[in-house]
Inverse folding.
């Protein structure tokens, strides 16, 4: 049908180098029966949930993954996301809704893969951090649901069946420290971007 | 013959074919098989199976499809369902698979008799799965970040087959792994759920006969969440005594779900919950201040929550938390009442002030003390007396008068409004009217009609009436605008005395009382009845009233039930105030069983049975019989005595006729053998030794004709009637009356007429002169006017024989007229002379007065009759007391009359004398 299953995206994001993949293809909206009017509100709530839990997730990661209580000052350096890839989120409140939706899709597609990698690494490196792992799982699931809803919105409202997505660098094969650092950098950036996204996207995601 | 061997060979081949291992597969080679192999069939459908025989079996054993028989288990399938398709194939058809069972076997009938199994299949009959219905899901929050979605559905009918159910769910672009129920077929739980995504959920049911899917449920799991109840609830008291603040934690992120709440609370000890208005808690929060509470009261709180928009489910109620409001000053004064004891002195009261402790919601804290103020209203000069009391009663000694008592309760915050009680000198005001009670479930309602005057309050006193203890008064106060109260704590089946007093502004009304039961029952026992008095036809029953504890209700009546052993029971209803009742119209001398029943409005109880027997005679009946009889007897006796007394002369004539004294008769003069010197009047002279010759003297008065005939014989008649016969010779005249000799009797006759005739016609006397103890016998004269042989031998022989035993003792009486007066008080036996019949020569002179032809009785009988004779003699002696006793000498004469010298004295009846012969 031209639609790439979401599972494929998960496989793609495991490539060591970020690539580009077809997100939605084909002429029909998948699961049109489920793409209801409440999806917009659901998307807003999902962004709000991610925004509300991002900082706590980051703190848990820093303390759980590094063994530091709270967020030590050293984490600013270690977790500085300057050198990592993170999707650009160059939209504001005045941007078109379609543009916002596409930007959101790119952002959460990247986050979903990155959170998957971080969760995998933490399960390997820090299996006893139950709460962190639980938070990572929940956040990942939320991004999955968010992608599902954005797919519905893009397809239903804008007939967009394909979006170019770039995934982050794979942590596979890297050292544990690097894995932890990369995860911390992603989460640090995630905290910053999700807050921005929530603020910017709020008027666009409100029922019009 | 050949055919038989052929079938044997065939059977052997079959067995061999079945049992021998196959060279290639090592399995048993069959002579045929069934198609289809182990089918699964829909219940109620038709089914056809084919049994195909192997060619090898045909060649060797002459087995053909026509010999095939089909069996279900051990039951033969009717051949109408068979069809021989060709020489090796037989089919069987079932129009309804519900008649099928497993196994279905194909068999052949070898040699017409031997049944050999060819093949068998297992047939499974069942149903295709129904479409699962009523699919519903709920998301349970199991921890702060963990949710489990549980879906349930109706799996439909039983399929009789292994049916698999799968719960499936998907997103628009993603289908998640199926949820396979474990051990059940109607529910499954999913842990990997995601909020804010529309999820499609459905159930698939699959078995060998098909697959069915439920309707698809599209739901955002966030809308079906049952959250965890608020955690860590705490209650804190605030500044105000009517406010408590609740705080808690929500375990669902605000971002995920906003919640609304329900807060419920109740006073400790109460069972009814109160709820904070839902609109006050419809917004997300983690604390709430509950207002309008009672001061110093313990409250229990509990909270629950659900999604703010109302979608989903309410959480369970949180754990209960207790909080207590702070104290406040008492809201009202304690109800106060008094009991006045004037028993010591009417002019000096002992006033027991009693009041009730304030209820917690009135006390608003811990009552530290009560302040009692007493003011004498009749004397303004008297100072107000104040008392601080920690208990709920206070006793005062007050002179008679009017007092105003004020009571205040005080706690740590402040004092209550005062309660005022006026104690008037007398309760002269109007009482309540129409006091009545009515049970209402477990309460007893007391109602009354208010007096015409304005009443401030009413005091209702009540106490449990007991026969063993005093009435302990309980009381309560009702406001003046009510006309009825419910009394609580009233026990069923107990009698209560209720009194209502109206309290006026200027005095108190007299109390009106009524007895009441909350609930009545039948008496616990019946009265014990007993008799107080029992007569011939009536009985007076008595019983005691049942005690109030035994009554269990108002005794409406007593019922007396009494009956005889075999009679019907008679029922009498008696007024309950009675303790005595008289049963009348009873049958005399009859055993009665009586029992008594006491009845209330709710039943009756019967006491023990009591039996009594009525008397045979009524009161005075015996006296009425005995007394008159005695009186009559006495009267008769008295009359008889009087008669005898008045007629003593006449009686004497009849019984003891005057016998002329032979000594005075002329015969003495002409009797040549009688010496003149014989003096009959002087017995002692003649018989100095007390022995004399028996002489019978008969005095006959010529002028009294009857004395010789009728009157003389009457005593004999009487004697005969009295059966005073005895052995020996009859005295006839004197002997019987005086019992001169118990061994002598009157030979009387039962034929009185004959006797009378004889006596009237035969008058004779025999005077026998006999010597006593060899003394010279006296001259004996016998007189008679009869010419017939007087002393016939038969009678004498009888007399002789009858008196044979008594011959040793002979008695003879001798009486003379001249001695009558002097000898009346002598017992006749004093002059009894015994005569011994020594021999015939010792003849005793006798006088035999022949009354009738009957002779004397045998001695034995005569002895028995002596007692009667003695009694009779005493009677006669009594009757004849004072009269002249005329002894008749009766002597048994053992000798024959013929042998005795006889002389007959011609009797001149008219002249009353004897003429010498």
């Amino acid at each position: 049908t031209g639609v790439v299953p979401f599972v494929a995206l998960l496989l793609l994001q495991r490539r060591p180098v970020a690539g580009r993949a077809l997100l939605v293809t084909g002429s029909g909206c998948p699961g049109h029966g489920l793409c209801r009017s409440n999806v917009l509100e659901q998307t807003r709530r999902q962004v709000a949930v991610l925004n509300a839990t991002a900082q706590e997730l980051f703190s848990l990661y820093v303390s759980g993954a590094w063994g530091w209580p709270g967020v030590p000052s050293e984490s600013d350096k270690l977790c500085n996301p300057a050198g990592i890839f993170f999707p650009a989120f160059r939209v504001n409140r005045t941007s078109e809704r379609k543009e916002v939706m596409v930007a959101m899709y790119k952002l959460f597609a990247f986050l979903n893969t990155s959170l998957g990698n971080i969760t995998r690494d933490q399960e390997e490196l820090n299996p006893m951090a139950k709460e962190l792992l639980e938070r990572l799982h929940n956040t990942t699931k939320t991004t999955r649901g968010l992608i599902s809803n954005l797919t519905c919105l893009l397809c239903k409202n804008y007939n967009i069946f394909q979006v170019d997505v770039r995934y982050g660098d794979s942590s596979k094969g890297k050292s544990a420290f690097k894995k932890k650092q990369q995860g911390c950098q992603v989460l640090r950036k995630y905290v910053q971007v999700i807050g921005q996204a929530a603020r910017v996207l709020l008027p666009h995601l409100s029922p019009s | 013959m050949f055919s038989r061997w052929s079938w044997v060979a065939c059977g052997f081949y079959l067995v061999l074919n079945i049992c021998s291992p196959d060279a290639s597969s090592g399995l048993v080679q069959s002579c045929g098989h069934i198609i289809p192999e182990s089918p699964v069939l829909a219940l109620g459908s038709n089914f056809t199976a084919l049994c195909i025989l192997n060619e090898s079996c045909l060649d060797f054993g002459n087995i053909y499809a026509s010999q095939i028989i089909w069996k279900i288990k051990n039951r033969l399938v009717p051949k109408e369902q068979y069809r021989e398709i060709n020489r090796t194939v037989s089919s069987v058809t079932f129009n309804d698979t519900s008649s099928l069972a497993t196994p279905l076997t194909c068999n052949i009938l070898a040699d017409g008799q031997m049944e050999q199994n060819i093949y068998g299949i297992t047939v499974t009959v069942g149903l295709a799965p129904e479409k699962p219905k009523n699919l519903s899901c709920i998301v349970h929050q199991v921890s702060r970040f963990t949710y489990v979605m549980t879906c349930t559905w109706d799996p439909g009918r039983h399929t009789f087959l292994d049916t698999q159910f799968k719960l499936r769910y998907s997103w628009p672009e993603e289908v998640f792994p199926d949820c396979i129920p474990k051990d059940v077929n109607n529910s499954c739980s999913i842990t990997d759920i995601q909020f804010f995504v529309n999820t499609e959920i459905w159930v698939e049911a699959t078995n060998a006969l098909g697959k069915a899917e439920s309707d698809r449920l599209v739901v955002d799991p966030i809308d079906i969440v049952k959250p965890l109840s608020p955690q860590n609830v705490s209650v804190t008291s605030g500044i105000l005594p009517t406010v408590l603040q609740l705080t808690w934690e929500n375990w669902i992120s605000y971002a995920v779900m906003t919640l609304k709440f329900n807060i419920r609370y109740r006073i400790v000890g109460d069972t009814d919950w109160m709820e904070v208005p839902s609109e006050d808690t419809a917004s997300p929060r983690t604390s709430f201040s509950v207002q309008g509470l009672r001061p110093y009261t313990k409250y229990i709180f509990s909270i629950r929550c659900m999604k703010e928009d109302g979608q989903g489910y309410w959480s369970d109620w949180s754990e209960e938390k207790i909080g207590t409001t702070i104290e406040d000053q008492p809201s009202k004064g304690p109800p106060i009442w008094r009991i006045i004891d004037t028993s010591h002195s009417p002019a000096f009261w002992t006033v027991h002030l009693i009041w009730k402790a304030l209820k917690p919601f009135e006390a608003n804290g811990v009552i530290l003390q009560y302040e009692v103020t007493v003011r004498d209203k009749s004397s303004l000069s008297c100072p107000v007396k104040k008392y601080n009391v920690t208990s709920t009663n206070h006793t005062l000694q007050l002179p008679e008068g009017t007092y105003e008592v004020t009571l205040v309760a005080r706690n740590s915050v402040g004092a209550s409004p005062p309660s005022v009680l006026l104690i008037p000198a007398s309760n002269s005001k109007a009482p309540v009217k129409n006091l009545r009670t009515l049970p209402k479930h477990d309460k007893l309602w007391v109602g009354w009609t208010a007096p015409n005057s304005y009443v401030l309050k009413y005091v209702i006193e009540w106490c449990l009436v007991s026969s063993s203890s005093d009435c302990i008064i309980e009381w309560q106060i009702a406001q003046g605008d009510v006309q009825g109260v419910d009394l609580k704590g009233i026990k069923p089946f107990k009698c209560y005395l209720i009194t209502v007093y109206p309290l006026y502004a200027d005095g108190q009304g007299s109390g009106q009382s009524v007895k009441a039961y909350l609930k009545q029952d039948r008496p616990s026992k019946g009265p014990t009845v007993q008799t107080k008095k029992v007569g011939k036809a009536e009985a007076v029953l008595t019983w005691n009233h049942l005690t109030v504890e035994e009554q269990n209700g108002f005794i409406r009546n007593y019922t007396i039930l009494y009956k005889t052993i075999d009679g019907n029971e008679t029922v009498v209803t008696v007024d309950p105030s009675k303790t005595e009742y008289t049963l009348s119209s009873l049958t005399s001398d009859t055993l009665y069983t009586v029992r008594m029943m006491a009845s209330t409005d709710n039943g009756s109880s019967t006491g023990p049975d009591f039996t009594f027997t009525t008397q045979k005679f009524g009161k005075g009946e015996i006296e009425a019989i005995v007394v008159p009889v005695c009186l009559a007897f006495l009267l008769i006796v008295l009359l008889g005595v009087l008669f005898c007394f008045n007629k003593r002369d006449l009686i004497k004539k009849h019984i003891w006729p005057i016998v002329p004294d032979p000594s005075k008769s002329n015969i003495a003069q002409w009797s040549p053998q009688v010496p003149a010197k014989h003096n009959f009047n002087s017995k002692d002279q003649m018989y100095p030794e007390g022995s004399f010759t028996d002489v019978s003297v008969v005095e006959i008065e010529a002028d009294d004709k009857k004395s010789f005939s009728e009157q003389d014989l009457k005593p004999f008649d009487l004697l005969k009637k009295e059966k005073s016969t005895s052995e020996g010779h009859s005295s006839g005249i004197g002997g019987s009356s005086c019992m001169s000799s118990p061994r002598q009797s009157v030979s009387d006759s039962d034929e009185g007429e004959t006797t009378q005739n004889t006596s009237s016609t035969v008058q004779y006397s025999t005077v026998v002169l006999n010597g006593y103890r060899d003394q010279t016998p006296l001259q004996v004269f016998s007189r008679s006017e009869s010419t017939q042989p007087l002393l016939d031998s038969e009678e004498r022989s009888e007399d002789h024989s009858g008196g044979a035993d008594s011959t040793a003792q002979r008695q003879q009486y001798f009486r003379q007229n001249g001695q009558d007066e002097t000898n009346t008080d002598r017992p006749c036996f004093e002059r009894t002379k015994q005569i011994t019949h020594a021999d015939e020569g010792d003849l005793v002179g006798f006088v035999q007065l022949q009354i009738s032809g009957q002779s004397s009785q045998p001695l034995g009988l005569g002895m028995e009759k002596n007692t009667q004779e003695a009694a009779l003699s005493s009677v006669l002696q009594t009757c004849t007391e004072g009269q002249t006793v005329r002894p008749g000498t009766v002597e048994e004469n053992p000798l024959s009359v013929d042998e005795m010298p006889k002389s007959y004295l011609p009797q001149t009846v008219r002249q009353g004398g004897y003429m010498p012969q």
Summary: The two ends of chain A are 31 Å apart (CA to CA). Chain A touches chain B at residues 3, 5-7, 29-36, 38-39, 42-43, 45-46, 48-49, 51-53, 134-135, 138, 141-142, 144-146, 148-149, 151-152 (CB under 8 Å).
